[in-house]
Amino acid sequence: MSLKSSTKTDVNTTELLISIDAETFENAVEKAYQRAKKNIQLPGFRKGKVSRKLAEKTFGEGAFYEDAINLLIGPELDSAIKESNLELVDRPNVEIVSIDKENGVELKAICVTKPEIEISDYKGIKAAKAVKEITDEDIDKQIDIIRKKNARIVSVDDRAAQLNDEVVIDFEGFFGDEAFEGGKGEDHPLRLGSGQFIPGFEDQVVGHNIGDEFDVNVTFPENYQMTDYAGKEAVFKCKLKAISYEELPEINDDLVKDATEFDTVDEYKADIRTKLEDAAVKQADNAFENAVLNELIAKVDSPIPNCMFEQRIDAIMRTFEQQLKQQGMDLNIYFQYTGMDMDSFRETYRDRAENEVKLRLALEKIAELENIEISDEEINNSLAELAASNNMDVETIKSFIPYNEYVLDLRVQKAVELVKENAVVDNSSAE
Prior knowledge:
The chain is α+β, with helices and mostly antiparallel strands. It has helices spanning 22-36, 52-59, 65-83, 136-149, 201-205, 253-259, 265-298, 306-326, 331-338, 342-348, 350-369, 376-389, 394-400, 403-421, and strands at residues 2-10, 13-20, 93-100, 104-112, 126-127, 152-156, 166-175, 178-191, 213-219, 233-247, 424-425.
């Protein structure tokens, strides 16, 4: 193999001209023939016994050229890319410029290369940071959680149903005089005001007493998941069979002792306040970090190959598909529920993918500019933590991960910490 030239033809695009000598090409053609001959059959010859010369005479001199080129492209191209010191972000587009026995082969490879990012002013990025003040109302909301867990259900038979009541109903839905599929239920529990049913349904149950039989008139939403029902007017024939409500207990020391690890209401409230304040600080830190990183993303204006964004969308979608499978669904079912198709679904992830690619490139560049390195001890400690979290030994983990990329991930994480540590809290715009 001979790399004849390496020419940058556009931003992030390099053209390689590769020459493969006649001897190397001949060896590849012979190897291609040897692989194919077991399937070659001609009249008067047993299958697999046709000579190469006869096969080429019958099928043409170039009968095995394509297979030979395919045998050569991988290693020859890898060698040329390495010699040119290129870092590719997509598979090269390879064209055959010329091919013959006497002169060998000349290939042209169009390579999309990793963009060279320019980044500056990444130290001292300003962003607002506000820690939420914890109020008594916030604490009361947390206390209501244990009150609800210890609530008593009280049956009602002396008044009409109200919002927030739990009722039991029979119902059957009709379009005109025809009952529709999925519109019937018996002894169905429903919390009025929960929004479980079609808008307007629960409000029309309010005011009825046990034993009442009544009609509920509704219109299915235009965006209803069952498209055949969307926008249609329907009548539900209903019967109210039971009413109950949730009676919350008073918050006192006895309830706290029974439901928590504390002895008094004051102790419990103090613990809630501490936890909420800690959470508020963490939330503010996360919001500040996100704001700083968004500012960093905005500083990236170098041209980036579109294929990098598409690859990131592919990765995000693979993760989403795995999550759907865990829920017993797939993309086709998801599209039926949402009314989306593959193209529109991919577009929902484009902004996220572009930001993630830009951020990664910026952080890799900062790691380079700051000469960030990872010691062997840091790598080993990180691998040990990863192995422990996956119930594996370190050597097994090493066999599963691309080592160089893993080390780069650690360098990128250090770059994140550097940007955060040098960021400046600035609440002036929020005042």
